């Protein structure tokens, strides 16, 4: 019954939402002072709007200013047509109403912070549905396009909507993805698959320089998406760029789990993933320590593996790099809003039925975080304007998601998001707790300014969790675009500051004020950091090691990346 209900609600627990709403509503009902302030705000906003409307009437629809400015990230009303009557009145009334609801859902004494954030987030989602930009009758940009094209934009939009519905019902992929096929258009850096188990393929990339640094680089990507986010087109491939800097690069390519993989847990991802890859690299490049790198969830798993290795005296890591990765989930952004016992029990029932968390269910959760950018703007563009945005390599990768096994995802959400065991010293590996303070390898950590998945202040907590040298970089862009920031990328900059092992703690705001700012790509900073911790160049190692059982199994990008 819960699984069937979850399909109808998109995985959201009605009990969790009801609990948050009741907490807010009951405390608001018992707060006459807050009610009076809200009534006062409503009267003031009404008077302000009336004055604005009168000003418009007296100045032929042009008041000469706005009574409320949109938030900096709100681009819905940036077109000049929204400043004409009556659309200026329509969108200003909406923004005033939106601001009043923010006041109503926040600052109610007695409401828990989590419930307040849930109610405020839900109210914002509901208000966004009724934004005047989403209706063809109140959106001047749509009306102008309709008049100019004689309604052909709406006809194209209807065709786009029917096409999307047909593709959704048949399970077809979005249009345009056929132009970005792994191994043909993306993920084309030359390499070989040198190891395979039920969970990963390990790719070793061919050298592009006469000599390489003796320490290889292992990249552990997130298993929620395909690995080739770091090997997109040749001009923005981190893998290709890194081999060009004289490094031997290994990449983990995760399988796309199905119902038969429902019982794969987090420890399987550690042993069959990170540790199996390190064992293979130790045979292919014997006697050399490894520069281990983890991206997003891959970085979290790498931190667990590194801490367990440090505890057990395994010193194979020369350095550890984290890209937009978290180890403390106390302030992990809006993704944590609906992570509680009620929600997890509901989600587990849904995953239990099918054995995994489906890609569409994950995509829906991420789209909610930026519904204006990822949902409503697309509806306006595709269905009201009748346009189709041409896909690029990053957008095509974003549509190529993978599933997550029932057990692993349940453990991940409970042990990390809900209980925060890793940061608080309760996370166990092989029956014994691990601590990130045991890690002695130097750390290079990257956060991105607009990250809605791993907020940079959350990633910055690596300073509090470790006792080793930490170099932290803050770069522009979001969770994906900020990491795929190749040299020559326009309008890119970053800040960087290193904390020595025995330095005192610097809080994020003080770090932001003190960190030196550089124009360009942070990749160059990372390369300099790796170079300083690597040995003199040597001849490249062989591809695989057949004698040790790591023979070449095929060409990159391998077979797991092709799984749908």
UniProtKB/TrEMBL annotation:
<dbReference type="Pfam" id="PF12551">
    <property type="entry name" value="PHBC_N"/>
</dbReference>
<keyword id="KW-0012">Acyltransferase</keyword>
<dbReference type="GO" id="GO:0042619">
    <property type="term" value="P:poly-hydroxybutyrate biosynthetic process"/>
</dbReference>
<dbReference type="Pfam" id="PF07167">
    <property type="entry name" value="PhaC_N"/>
</dbReference>
<feature type="domain" description="Poly-beta-hydroxybutyrate polymerase N-terminal">
    <location>
        <begin position="73"/>
        <end position="242"/>
    </location>
</feature>
<dbReference type="InterPro" id="IPR051321">
    <property type="entry name" value="PHA/PHB_synthase"/>
</dbReference>
<protein>
    <submittedName>
        <fullName>Polyhydroxyalkanoate synthase</fullName>
        <ecNumber>2.3.1.-</ecNumber>
    </submittedName>
</protein>
<dbReference type="GO" id="GO:0016746">
    <property type="term" value="F:acyltransferase activity"/>
</dbReference>
<dbReference type="InterPro" id="IPR010941">
    <property type="entry name" value="PhaC_N"/>
</dbReference>
<keyword id="KW-0808">Transferase</keyword>
<dbReference type="InterPro" id="IPR022211">
    <property type="entry name" value="PHBC_N"/>
</dbReference>
<feature type="domain" description="Poly-beta-hydroxybutyrate polymerase N-terminal">
    <location>
        <begin position="1"/>
        <end position="34"/>
    </location>
</feature>
<dbReference type="InterPro" id="IPR029058">
    <property type="entry name" value="AB_hydrolase_fold"/>
</dbReference>
């Amino acid at each position: 019954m819960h699984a069937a209900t979850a399909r109808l609600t998109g995985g959201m627990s009605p009990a969790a939402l009801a609990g948050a709403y009741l907490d807010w509503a009951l405390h608001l009902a018992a707060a006459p002072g807050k009610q009076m302030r809200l009534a006062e705000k409503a009267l003031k906003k009404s008077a302000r709007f009336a004055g604005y409307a009168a000003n418009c009437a007296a100045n032929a629809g042009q008041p000469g200013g706005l009574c409320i400015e949109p938030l900096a990230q709100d681009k819905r009303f940036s077109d000049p047509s929204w400043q004409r009557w009556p659309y200026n009145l329509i969108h200003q009334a909406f923004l005033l109403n939106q601001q009043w609801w923010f006041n109503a859902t926040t600052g109610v004494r007695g409401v828990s912070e989590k419930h307040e954030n849930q109610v405020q987030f839900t109210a914002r989602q509901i208000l966004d549905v009724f934004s005047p930009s989403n209706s063809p009758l109140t959106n001047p940009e749509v009306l102008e396009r309709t008049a100019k094209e004689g309604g052909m934009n709406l006809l194209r939009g209807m065709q786009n909507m029917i096409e999307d519905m047909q593709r959704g019902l048949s399970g077809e992929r979005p249009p345009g993805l056929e132009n970005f096929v792994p191994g043909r258009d993306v993920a084309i850096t030359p390499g070989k698959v040198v190891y395979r188990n039920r969970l990963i393929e390990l790719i070793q990339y061919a050298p592009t320089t006469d000599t390489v640094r003796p320490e290889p680089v292992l990249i552990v990507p997130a298993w929620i998406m395909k690995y080739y986010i770091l090997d997109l087109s040749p001009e923005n491939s981190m893998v290709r760029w890194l081999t060009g800097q004289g490094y031997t690069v290994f990449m983990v390519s995760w399988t796309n789990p199905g119902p038969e993989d429902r019982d794969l847990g987090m420890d399987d991802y550690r042993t069959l993933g990170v540790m199996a890859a390190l064992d293979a690299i130790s045979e292919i490049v014997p006697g050399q320590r490894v520069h281990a790198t983890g991206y997003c969830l891959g970085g979290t798993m790498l931190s667990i593996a590194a801490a367990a290795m440090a505890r057990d005296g395994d010193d194979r890591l020369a350095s550890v790099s984290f890209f937009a990765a978290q180890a403390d989930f106390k302030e992990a952004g809006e993704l944590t809003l609906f992570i509680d016992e009620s929600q997890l029990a509901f989600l587990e029932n849904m995953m239990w039925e099918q054995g995994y968390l489906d890609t569409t269910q994950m995509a829906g959760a991420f789209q909610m975080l930026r519904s204006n950018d990822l949902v409503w703007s697309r509806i306006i563009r595709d269905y009201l304007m009748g346009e189709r945005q041409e896909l690029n390599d990053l957008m095509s990768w974003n549509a190529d998601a993978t599933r997550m096994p029932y057990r692993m995802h349940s453990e991940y959400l409970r042990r990390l998001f809900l209980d925060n065991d890793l940061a608080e010293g309760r996370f166990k590996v092989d029956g014994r707790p691990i601590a990130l303070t045991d890690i002695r390898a130097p750390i290079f950590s990257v956060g991105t300014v607009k990250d809605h998945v791993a907020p940079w202040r959350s990633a910055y907590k690596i300073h509090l969790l470790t006792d080793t040298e930490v170099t932290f970089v803050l770069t522009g862009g979001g969770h994906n675009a900020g990491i795929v920031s190749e040299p020559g990328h326009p309008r890119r900059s970053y800040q960087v500051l290193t904390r020595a092992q025995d330095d005192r703690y610097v809080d994020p705001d003080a770090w932001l004020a003190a960190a030196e700012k550089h124009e360009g790509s942070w990749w160059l900073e990372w390369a300099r950091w790796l170079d300083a911790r690597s040995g003199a160049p040597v001849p490249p190692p062989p591809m695989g090691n057949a004698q040790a059982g790591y023979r070449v199994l095929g060409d990159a990008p391998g077979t797991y990346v092709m799984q749908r």
